Amino acid sequence: MIKCQVVMNAMDAFAPRYLAEDWDNVGLLIGSPAQNVHKILTCLDVTESIIDKAIAEGYDMIVSHHPFLFRSMKRINTDKPLGRMIQKLLSHNIAVFAAHTNLDTTFGGVNDVLAQKLNLTDLKPLTISYREEILKLGVNVPNDYADAVRQAICKAGAGFIDNYSDCSFQFVGEGRFTPLENATPFIGTQDKNEVVTETRIETIFPAKIKNRVIKALLKAHPYEVPAYDIIPTQNVYHENGLGRIGKLQIPMLLTEFVKMVKENLPGDTFRFVKGNDKLVQKVALCSGAGVEFLDKASMQGADTYVTGDVKYHEAQHAQELGINLIDAGHFGTEMPVVKTLATYLQNENIKNKWQIEVTADTSAQDVFTTI
Ligand SMILES: [Zn+2]
Ligand SMILES: [Zn+2]
Asked: How confident is the model at residue 106 (pLDDT cuts 50, 70, 90)?
């Protein structure tokens, strides 16, 4: 058993809240961070049948992709479907957590799972909504303390560049200072200019962990007032955004690609627009309702675009652009992430000895039936 807050933290590590779009409503939507959690159900939508299943099978937390509460409410009428569902959740103490556009966007989230189902490689985000701000840190340390300070700031999260950790550069120089009246200097005496051989350490870190890095630096540094500077950089290492663009290792006919997409995705919604006579190779996608990025996909040279919720005039526009457009359904393009969510939490459960149960919902069906 664990506290709900622990699951919230783990979810934040997988799909950080800062990746959510401004209009979104993510995080803990019902319940308390302090409540106990034994059994988690992951799902796409918090429907009444999911709530009934959670009650019947003793789940105390639901982690969904679509936010259960989205629009603001002025009254909770328990005769209406939403009010009735809120009442059921509260009376059975079931917490509800949503990871929506942050889960679409994050590495390994909805769009990456969809891309994997379509056998795409060399993936990049189709849109950029978040660029990690990188800061550069330079600090002067007495030589004997250089190792300890460098290790402390790297342990706090500095020095990561792509697949490399502990990245830093250092050189030796002369530091000068004069301790004034009220100083308690680690080296030197009052009113006497000191010259000390010091090591300069330089590294980088993401702006969001600045407080942690500076705290570690100040703790490991022996000086009363360490000399350090933090400089903004234009470096970009991590970019996140909605949608993906990638390629098929082996180009295929549109008819073959369409068949593969249909076989690999769940749901009952499937139709497509032929936009060109080329073999399918460069494919863009956006899970859910992502047709708004069709022009972007075309501009980036995609021959085919996969999404859901396509309308008539949008389909016509794909033909005008000369890009194939596959509508594999909102459900079909997003349901696969439910299993990924459960697998992630199951691994966290084992790794951190939470001793809870995590299950992926497999009962949900596409709301549409195709005849
Ligand atoms: Zn989504
Ligand atoms: Zn969606």
From this structure: very high
Evaluate whether 170 touches 198 at the Cβ level (below 8 Å): no
The rounded Å distance from CA 48 to ligand 1 centre is: 20
pLDDT tens-digit series, residues 140-189: 999 999 999 999 999 999 998 877 889 999 999 999 999 998 888 888 88
Ligand 1 mean position, distance from CA 143 (Å): 52
- CA 12 from centre of chain: 8
178 plus 247 within the same structural domain: no
Is 65 annotated as a binding-site member? Answer: yes
Q: Domain of 245?
A: 110-128+241-328
Q: Per the structure block, which two tokens stand in for 175?
A: 């530091």
CATH of the domain at 196: 3.30.70.120
The angle at the Cα of 249, spanning 246 to 252, to the nearest 5 degrees, equals: 95
CA of 103 to the centre of ligand 1 (A): 7
Last residue of a domain, one of 203, 232, 261: 232
Rounded to whole angstroms, the Cα distance separating 85 from 55 reads 11
Q: How many angstroms is it from 299 CA to the middle of ligand 1?
A: 23
317 is in an annotated binding site: no
Q: Say whether 38 counts as a known binding-site residue.
A: no
Tell me, yes or no, whether 81 lies in a domain. yes
